[in-house]
Amino acid sequence: MPRAQETAVYTHGHHESVLRSHTWRTAANSAAYLLGVLEPHMRILDIGCGPGTITADLAELVPDGRVTGVDRAAGVLEQARATADGRGLRNIDFAVADVHALDHPDDTFCVVHAHQVLQHVGDPVQALREMKRVTRPGGWIAVRDSDYAAMTWYPASPGMDDWLALYRRVARANGGEPDAGRRLKSWALRAGLTGITATSATWTFSTPEERAWWSGLWADRTLASEYARVAVGGGHATEEELRAVSEAWREWGRQEDAWFSVLHGEMLCRKEA
User: Fold this and answer.
1) DSSP state, residue 116
2) Do the strands 135-146 and 66-71 form a parallel or antiparallel pair, or are they unpaired?
């Protein structure tokens, strides 16, 4: 029987405006729910590692263990390797991989982690089955995904309402599920996972610096990233509509009372020993 393969298209791509966000991520701001179970000797698989900032943090937290970061995009792994080299980490390696069919034996890792991955894959249940397969008995499966429909902001902005509706259309047309955060527990149960602890956490952007950064990267992403190409090429929006959405982001960011919250679903599962 042939192994399952990825069928979805990664909505964001790896434009500079996307990596501007991804390189901001740390284990502290993006994987705090996992850190309490880590031990110095652990072997960790970090799926969808992107530019490797979370991966490098995890490697520092398991100095007697080892972390393997994997991603479907070979190009971004060069940046991940540079991140690790710049921090002098020697207990870390990187490889190209598809979460639906991981190139590792059963029961290999103490922790299998995926941040903002399941929302972009074609079969999240199969992905979780693979994550479980390569986790050692007694080990941990950890996933965290945002939930676009639950994102909220102030003040109201019709242009940002248009952004959210458009993003969700494009992500689903690409084969993903943008409202993944609320579905993690359901997917885990369907994948046969047990020992599930389901929680949530937020990123909040409110200070002048946070507003400028968050609004600027989304304004740029709307016009220049892979998402923009797919939105226009797929007939979901015109270039004029994208320019209007981009300007709505910049206008929101200029408001002194602006506030934005990103909800994430989180799930920590312990594999039966």
Assistant:
1) S
2) unpaired
E runs forming strands in 78-134: 92-96, 109-115
Tell which residue, 170, 180, 142, 183, has the closest CA to residue 267: 142
Distance CA 69, CA 123 (A): 20
Q: Which two tokens stand for residue 199?
A: 């929680």
Give dist(CA 95, CA 67) in Å, integer: 11
Write phi, then psi, for 8 (nearest 5 degrees).
-85, 160
Instruction: Judge whether 129 and 191 are in contact, CB under 8 Å.
Output: yes
Whole-number average pLDDT of the chain: 94
**CB distance 172 to 143 below 8 Å:** no
Q: Are 75 and 52 in contact (CB under 8 A)?
A: no
What's the pLDDT tens digit per position in 199-229? 999 999 999 999 999 999 999 999 988 889 9
- Predicted local distance difference test score (pLDDT) of residue 135: 98
Tokens, residue 255: 């408001």
Q: State the Cα–Cα distance between residues 139 and 107, nearest whole angstrom.
A: 9
The letter for the amino acid at 35 is L
For 40-56, how does the pLDDT look when each residue is reduced to its tens digit (9 = 90+)? 999 999 999 999 999 99
Residue 198 main-chain phi, psi, to 5 deg: -105, 125
Closest CA to 107 of 134, 138, 140: 134
pLDDT at residue 124, as a whole number:
97
Please determine, for residue 6, whether its predicted confidence score (pLDDT) is greater than 60. Answer: no
Q: What is the average per-residue pLDDT within 246-255?
A: 98
